[in-house]
Give the backbone structure.
Amino acid sequence: MKTKYLKINPADNVAVAIVELPAGTTLTVDGKEVVLNDTIPAGHKFALQDLAEGENVIKYGYPIGHVKKAQKQGDWLNENNIKTNLAGLLEYTYNPVNAELNIPNRNLTFKGYRRSNGQVGVRNEIWIVPTVGCVNGIVGQLAEGLRRETGGKGVDAIAAFPHNYGCSQLGEDHENTKKILRDMVLHPNAGGVLVVGLGCENNQPDVFREFLGEYDQERVKFLVVQKVEDEYEEGMKLLRQLYEKASQDVRTDVPLSELRVGLKCGGSDGFSGITANPLLGMFSDFLVAQGGTTVLTEVPEMFGAETILMNRCRTRELFDQTVKLINDFKEYFLSHGEPVGENPSPGNKAGGISTLEDKALGCTQKCGKSYVQGVMSYGERLQVKGLNLLSAPGNDLVAATALASCGCHIVLFTTGRGTPFGTYVPTMKVSTNSTLAHNKPGWIDFNAGVIVEDEPMELTCERFIDYVIRVASGEPVNNEKKGYREIAIFKNGVTL
């Protein structure tokens, strides 16, 4: 361990404890002695100077809120004595910055599946997708039946994806369900998809078929269970056809420019913005420089750092779209009588995150320093390469599903507290600290905690690039090994 604390930005008036620091500890920060008045847990902040009541707390070089009352140098600063500066809707001004990257193209490749429409998948799986929750039991039985019959040989997985929606929904909710299910059916990680409908639901199978647009009829089959006598046997017949086709697919060399990854965090802690998130940012910049694509979502977790993203928008039009992305979500909060700035969870706070700005400034580091090239609404599919912003909430399952549904092959998920879940594409867990990685080896795929120990971030990033390429080429991550695969669809309206 090289240091016991970290001052992230020269402008900061707080530092972060790397290990627990007992009260009375004397530290030398920027040539000045700081005596700790409290025991500072690992990942938490302490004041580097006296702060007057209402004075801003600066971390990452930006305000993360203000102190509720005067604080002394060496005090522990947390959610009990820091208050957010966030309020309602804001007016924004476009102040573009130069975000050109000086990263060479290394002409790297991965082993992927080239589909008939030219798209590339990193997995070749058989998926069973229900149009409505009423058939959840059937799709589970069908998936189990095909696994039992084939042993899954020749494909990467056979999976059903139950959900609660598809009926009794109106307006935007109904459209959201249709879009996410459409995006799943068309996702290149699927070598074959069986769409299973009931027949009487709002999400009518025939209408949904039209909603798909162009699709490979040899790779996508439909079953409406009210229209057949034996839904299991009819479903198995269709699955055998899909399996026969998909099991012949083989991996080929694909340029890294074809890779699309989602950037996600959950169960964050005070190390998230120091280790794992900056690592993903460095990786994002690298992948974008190779011609690839990364996607940042969790819009409420941009609040307080949104201007950084706005000023990196390549065009004024993208800036306007980003402003709408932010303000639409703020209006969603306000329309339900909820405050804009009260987001950190109990786990976040226990890990050292005190305000939404504190969280946001750490979260947004996942997207590095490159230009924003695209802005997408919820359920929309990727149209442009480079860094994209996607509208979705902070909820881990909903946001990860949204990332997969826009076309991401893999979701990179940083966490300081740990979580086992995965969505329907490989969901790679990157720990912010080594303790979590050691305690939860069945959850964590890559440990970024070494960055505050003895490994330069540049070296960690090289190892991470290699690991992501291996995963894209077929190496399973923990959620795949354990079969932790779920979808969750955003809902904000009326249920009949």
